[in-house]
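From the pipeline queue, job 12 of 40. The input is one protein chain; the requested action is below.

Action: predict structure.
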Amino acid sequence: MKRTSLAIIFACFVLALAAQDGIKVKYQGAKPTISDFVWAYLSAYGENDDDGCMNEPLNAVKQAWIKQQKGRKLDKGETLTIDKKNGYVRYEAKYEVSVLRVEMCYWNESDGKHKIFAYNVSSFINGKYEPGQFDNLTFYRYNNATKKMTMYSVPGFDAVYDKVADGNCLYFDLPRTGKNITANYMNYADKKIKPKTLKWNGRKFSF
């Protein structure tokens, strides 16, 4: 899949911000947790994208989050893992041969003033990656002073797209432990995957 195609997927994914000056992250205590970042993100966006289409992954996570917070059972095939210690959240919805996976996590920047929040959507059929309309990895940068996060292009990350050859697509695995992202390059013809590690150094990503 060419970079232009990935850009189209990205454009389809992005929703209108509830507040154009950033997403306010409300929290109690000395600093926000992954739960605070996730709920701020889910609350900032409506259920529909700019074309009025239902953003199914985001809405599914939001409804599952509300149910779990209220102590209610999730729908059949759904799981929601909230790992506050490691700053990681994973939602999965399984239906027959299809699996929707949504991951969220954050990194601390080395300047001590910012954090990076990531929202990642991946779709699978029969255990193989199959790009969905809203599949993509997006980043937001949180400012400790303003307590807001805004969409952000993390330095070094764009290099992953330069390595996407014709006839291939790309999806990501966020870290539950550690700091590095796995970029999975999959060939459409044989479904073979070549994983590459994106290393986080506190400021940017690099291969």
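Job complete. Residues 18 and 45 are 6 Å apart (CA to CA).
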